[in-house]
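Most newcomers find our protein records easier to grasp once they have seen one. Sequence and backbone structure share a record, each on its own labelled line. Nothing more is needed to start thinking about how sequence determines fold. As an example, a complete record with its sequence and its structure tokens follows.
=====
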Amino acid sequence: MPPKLMIVIPCYNEEEVLPITSKLFLEELEGLIDKGKVSPDSRILFVNDGSTDSTWDIICGLSEECALFEGISQSRNRGHQSTLLAGLMEARDMCDVTISIDCDGQDDISAMERMIDEYAGGAEIVYGVRSARRADTFFKRFTAQSFYRLLKGMGADVVYNHADYRLVSSRVLREFADFREVNIFLRGMFPLVGFRSTCVYYERSERLAGKSHYPLSKMLGLAIDGITSLSIKPIRFITGMGIFVVLLSFIGVIWSVVEYFLHHSITGWASTVSIICFIGGIQLISLGVIGEYIGKMYMETKARPRYIISERTEDMEKDRPEDGKTI
């Protein structure tokens, strides 16, 4: 019996691109159903991230027009990762397998069939990996690749050039539900679950309409969240830097004492100011990094809900398990 698939698509202010890509998602799902690779009960689940445009109205309209479309909406904008998590957690008891993909059409939708084939071959997680980014500008390509290298170098276990286009089985999602972090970085958390995994490679294309919601500032924020949520390497780096500075200071003290007894010492303003600025800069950077971790702990201890669903399309309400909860 073919598996029931839920395609989970986070949406934020996508009124321009959603009417275009929704047709592409529907064509792909219907093709998979016709080929017998997924169950006719499979669905496309749009997750609205508190959009301020007509995105939710479009989702409701799609749901009324076609039974394969369903939708849920967050109570307010909470960010891409929280929205994607909401969709995955809502879907985990309604299907056998999920595929998450962004709404903009940049990720190759046809790669879903290869993901399903890998799942049929025994893989529980299939990562969609960008083999080429020719559609991106040099700056976008450079910053994106630097982003992955930085995460890897700082100890975050991520798949290079993989964003959030992935297949995840319901078995994995049930185990993933026990990960209770408030600070969410999904592309670094799923590798921690384990299970058999593989990759499907595809070429990234241009956005079909609208504008990107991930400028450099958000990418940097995501990198900081990924590093501080998954690794303590920055703290260890500070410790190593502190030891290095202490050794330099110790050598400096010996040098100054020797110079004093050799009567070579000269009172120098520049050297004193340089040392103070150097040590002060290191202290401020260290406090900033430590403060980032303390802030993460502060948010975790609050244990606030990671997402709150305020609305569902009619079909989604009907299909939702009675014990479904917002977490």
Observations:
- The radius of gyration is 25 Å.
- Residues 123 and 196 are 5 Å apart (CA to CA).
- The chain has two domains: 5-230+305-319, 233-302.
- DSSP finds eleven helices and eight strands in the chain.
